[in-house]
Amino acid sequence: MAGRTQDPQREKKAASSGSARADGAKTTTGRTKAPARSTGTRARSAASATPATAAKKAPAKRASATTRSGPDAATRVDYYRQMALIREFEQRAGEMYQRAKIGGYCHLNLGEEPSVVGLMTALRPTDYLFTNYRDHGYAIARGMGAGRVMAELFGRSDGVSKGLGGSMHMFDVDKRMLGGYGIVGGQIPPATGAALALTYRGKPGPDAEAVMCQMGDGTTNIGAFHEALNLAAIWKLPIVYVIINNGLGMATTVENASGEPELYKRGASYRIEGRRVDGSDPEVVRQAAVEMLTAAREKRQPGILEVMSYRLRGHSVVDPARYRSKEETAHLKDLDPLPAYRAQLIADGVLDEKAAEKIDGDAVKEVADAIAFADASPEPSADQLFQFTYATDVPNAPRLMPGDPVLAPGWDTDRAQKQEA
Ligand SMILES: Cc1ncc(C[n+]2csc(CCOP(=O)(O)OP(=O)(O)O)c2C)c(N)n1
Ligand SMILES: [Mg+2]
Fold first, then answer.
1. What is the pTM of this model?
2. Does the Cβ of 18 fall within 6 Å of ligand 1?
């Protein structure tokens, strides 16, 4: 695993937006002006801007709530509310892990809240979602309930997967969240298959269903990603592959691991359109996701959306991220998108300090309630262990406990006796 060095180029790249045309030709290499979050100057969206127009378009400061186009004040406040809830949930989940309330693996969305909220608010209830293991925020934003998500982390029977899945396996058929996958890239083949199923189920159009398949940057180097892209292209599948580019696959940088580190271009060989957006702004992410989902549902045009994000902590809760330099860690704190969005809403006059504090306080309370709910939920009983392995009953499916002999003792002598008889 390669160690991480500070890469100022990455900062520029991370902030840039671009698009790759469906025929693979490069149309945009990015903005000429990177959104400088530390000063509150942030990009609305430059996903389809050309370098020549981007400079003109780059806003010095967001327009005020009354003059700007885009979501209304209440919607923006709700984006902040959701981000604050996910932030509080993840911080407390990390704490609960330290207190051994949570076992196994646990990967947090800290720093990726705007990406999560932007994506989830673009998705309709009728769309399908597949994610990797960094899935708590998605489950919450999809409406699965902080209490049920926390109960899943605690391994309790009121959890979204009845406590049998844990952190990496959020699942809810009604909310059309079909996992939560712990195997890197494991979500890509079933998501692509779900998109294929949709083409049998209905016609393209404004009301058609679509699939969103979320993954990390490191995942784009596995074979299944490329096989899926090819199938999505030739079968014209209604799917958007979302790459959360947080710069790292565990400790390995994108630059060290990818021949083409601008991951939105990965679809060029399959004539799949790719776009890169700034993941620090939920509004930018949502806008791009809506456009790509619209193309997927109306034109059966698959797409790749690369969302440039920051992972503020280690890969998982047990990773102290020592591969980061002190300078980089301090810099990441400066780039924390949550206080930046909060400050932006206050500057735009859609939120005041008191209202923001109330939202933060409500998040604290909601997560405290979620922890209490999880704590009170019973442990799943051992007889449930094999009950939910398959969606429908499978005759002769093995129901052995770990350590049980695969064949009952005496099976060989029984057989010998039968043969003799
Ligand atoms: C097939 C497979 N190989 C390796 C692993 C171990 N592993 C877990 S996460 C990870 C890195 C993935 O990075 P990325 O896709 O960028 O997602 P992120 O963790 O940054 O969200 C690896 C190698 C795994 N779970 N599955
Ligand atoms: Mg990553």
1. 0.85
2. no
